[in-house]
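Proteins fold reproducibly. Take a tokenised chain:

. . .
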Amino acid sequence: MKHIVSYFLYTLTSLFTIVNPLSAMPFYNSLIEGSETNIGPRIARRATIAAFVAMLFFGVAGKFVFSFFNISIDGLRVVGGILFFISGYDMLQGRETRTKSMSASERLNIQDVELRAITPLAIPLITGPGTITFIMVAMHESVTFVDRAILFVSAVVVSLATYFILIGSKRIISIIGESGQKVFIRLMGLILMMIAVEYFFAGLRPYVHRLLAP
């Protein structure tokens, strides 16, 4: 039972930190601004479902990708660590990597808002390279059905949390303010950088052992 709780908390917090739905709020708000009043929940639902399906796909197909391209899990950990560190550093510095809003001219040129809910909102803003890497590594490391079920539940919880954060984004911003949002994103960036270090050295350790082996 202790393992189940600890693994659930690990996957849930790691996945939520990597997804970081707060960083998708500005794009979501600019996407629905000026549209019909009831389009917001529909766009958020469409985006989170598409993001969850992408997580599920790469979680299931991950082992086939490994075997087809002859990729080792350790190599993916190293690459994932680098990706997480870069993303976390950008978040820590407050750089607008995933928080860019659309201009008025861009909004006028949108023909299908629901298509924008799939890309770029769902992929790659919500489910990006870091999320895909984490899902693939975590699924590969899950040796039991319980671990995989926990990972699936964590993905569901994060997707639901993302949906509610998106539809309540204007209220969240009004409560915490832009400064509060920036502080939270910087905190998520710091946590993501710590996850990145663990991933990088966990993947690098086997290569070092092979190099030092007699």
The chain has a mean pLDDT of 84. The CA atoms of residues 5 and 150 lie 9 Å apart.
